[in-house]
Design brief:
methyltransferase activity; EC 2.1.2.11; binds sodium ion; Pyrv_kinase-like_dom_sf; elongated; metal-binding; transferase; binds 3-methyl-2-oxobutanoic acid; alpha/beta
Length: about 270
């Protein structure tokens, strides 16, 4: 059954979130019993083959989130607002968030950052009944401005910025926040200070929940090994081996077999000769 926000906020065990991008991904996540599915804009990297999340459009997110929802009708689903869709003013952000909710059946949206501009957007959306998950620490959409894809919150200024950002997101009405690539002790401090659940990725064990990119945990997306992810399967390798076996069997005339073929009556065939 789909969990409500109060239920997600009161889980006795760590909250489990994974990403999904399509119908089978949604089905697998729901069957595995995760608490939250995130249709992440990591879509751009692990599914669409871009080298950042910046090119991902609202249309891409909606297209994929609709497929996820068909596969996972009974799981709380959060959809990332992609780069540029909440940065041009509160009205635009509101309109785009409403579109995502209406077109995909999302239960909430997620956005990166805690600048005054973003906080205003968070406040407006939550006041208008759109649940918002925040995201601080490493923020891939604007990583270039953060000095690349690197750990945040290690020095005094950056740690303070991350802590204050998370607190401000809660004050503006966010119901949860992702902490990405920050030191474990900082994540622990933030988790203690906040009432809302923190969901960590590369943020240590003391967050209220964890999230992984499914294509990382399944070994489907095989970029460089990521310190923040753990591979629980090698589906990429399994896929290559299966396709190579198929190719060899076709070339060796071992596939298809009788079991894969259809039969017809001899007399029908005779008439064709
Ligand atoms: O896009 C994504 O997959 C994310 C998670 C890593 C939190 O934002
Ligand atoms: Na994201």
């Amino acid at each position: 059954m789909k969990r409500s926000i109060p239920e997600l906020q009161a889980l006795a065990q760590p909250l489990v979130m994974v990403t999904a991008y399509d119908y089978p991904g949604g089905r697998h996540a729901e069957a595995a019993g995760v608490d939250v599915i995130l249709v992440g804009d990591s879509l751009g990297n692990v599914v669409l083959g871009y080298d950042s999340t910046a090119p991902v459009t609202l249309g891409d997110m909606i297209h994929h989130a609709r497929a996820v929802r068909r596969g996972a009708p009974d799981t709380f689903m959060v959809v990332d607002l992609p780069f540029g869709t909440y940065h041009t003013g509160v009205q635009d952000a509101m309109r785009n968030a409403v579109r995502v909710i209406q077109d995909t059946g999302a239960d909430a949206i997620k956005m990166e950052g805690a600048t005054p501009e973003i906080l205003e957007v968070v406040q407006t959306l939550t006041r208008n009944g759109i649940p918002v998950m925040g995201h601080v620490g490493l923020m891939p959409q604007t990583a270039t401005a953060q000095g690349g894809l690197r750990v945040q919150g290690k020095d005094d200024a950056s740690a303070r910025l991350t802590l204050e950002g998370a607190l401000a997101l809660e004050a503006m009405g966010a119901f949860s926040v992702v902490l990405e690539a920050i030191p474990a002790r900082l994540a622990r401090l933030i988790s203690e200070r906040l009432a809302m659940p923190t969901i960590g990725i590369g943020a240590g064990l003391h967050c209220d929940g964890q999230v992984l990119v499914t294509h990382d945990l399944l070994g489907i997306y095989e970029g460089e090994e990521k310190k923040i992810a753990k591979r629980y399967a090698e589906l990429g390798r399994a896929a290559r081996e299966a396709i190579a076996t198929y190719a060899a069997e076709v070339r060796g005339r071992q596939f298809p077999t009788k079991e894969n073929a259809f039969v017809m009556k001899d007399d029908v065939l005779d008439k064709l000769y």
